[in-house]
Amino acid sequence: MGILILILSGCRLNNSVKPLSSEEKAVDVAYSDVPTIFLHGAGGGKHSLGGMLNRFTNQEVAQKSLVLTVSKDGIVSEKKALKDGHFSKDNPMVQVLFEDNRNNEWEQAAWIKAVLVFLQENYQVKTVNLVGHSMGGISEFRYLLQDGTNATLPKVNKFVAIGSPFNEFLDTFDSQSLDDLLIAGPSQRSERFILYENELDGMPKDVDVLLIAGKLSENDLSDKVVPLSSALSVNMMLMNNGNNVEHVIITGADHSGLHENKEVDEKVSHFLWYKN
Predict the structure, then answer these.
(1) What sign for the dihedral angle of Cα 9, 33, 270, 5?
(2) What is d(CA 175, CA 182) in angstroms, rounded to the nearest whole number?
């Protein structure tokens, strides 16, 4: 099961990245120096979300600026240091790669924390966005539940989960409608989902959330790996917590195809960077 955080070739990276000129910047994009962290899913790597980062860079709505690798021991290393020691104000993107890309959400949440500490100590980062595909979204959500309210760490502004199995692999549409799922939550709750319910007090209420789910067709309500109902299962939970939550359903894209999908690109970029 492969998410977010990737292709390095053919993009402007680190020292070679030039700040966008005023003529290049899109008038409807809100540019800032807040980095967005992209995390792959289980078994994923540099290619998992690399195409997405390259497309955003080529569209000049954001710039891929840094690649961080986390070892099995939780040590963070960077491919290239930013030349001037800080991020540009062109919506910088950080690609995060886990060497142990199939570990559990608790270990990965600790590694996400290590990434944020690294960015804080080396680049004075105070605010971030999180984007995760599949297991990447699960681990980022676990981080938010455990450390999202920790005032000593960078604040998370926005969180995007793409095809993430929040209710594991339970498909509840045989017993409830989509409307019922979104309002009442899943009719069957996995062990993972129950843990989330019990730990929801740790989720900061001011994090805006975008849930992206895929279905192969109008009759096949999954992306071939994650049921649509699982990817959207936390909608009710987060709304009840007070978070602003949006959801998007993509038809015709399978699990890995979600991060190569033009509609997904548009939804993610508008949610993260476009002016309201």
Answers:
(1) positive
(2) 14
The three-class DSSP label of residue 127 is strand
Give the sign of the dihedral formed by CA 138, CA 154, CA 276, CA 50.
Answer: negative
- pLDDT value for 18: 64
Nearest to 182 by CA among 232, 134, 231: 232
Dihedral in degrees, nearest 10, Cα atoms 202, 208, 211, 212: -150
Q: What is the residue type of 170?
A: L
Q: Which tokens belong to 87?
A: 């991020």
Residue 252 has pLDDT above 70, yes or no: yes
Confidence band of 84 (pLDDT split at 50, 70, 90): confident
CA distance 162 to 214: 8
At 57-66, the pLDDT tens digits run 999 999 999 9
Band (83; pLDDT cuts 50, 70, 90):
confident
Q: How do the domains of the chain map onto residue ranges?
A: 14-273
pLDDT band for 30, please (50, 70, 90 cuts).
Answer: very high
With beta carbons less than 8 A apart as the criterion, state whether 95 and 49 touch.
yes
Q: For every residue of 40-98, which 3-state class applies, written as one string?
A: ECCCCCCCCCHHHHHHHHHHCCCEEEEEEEECCCCCEEECCCCCCCCCCCCCEEEEEEE
CATH architecture of 14-273: 3-Layer(aba) Sandwich (3.40)
Q: What is the pTM of this model?
A: 0.92
Q: Which residues pair with 63 in a beta bridge?
A: 92
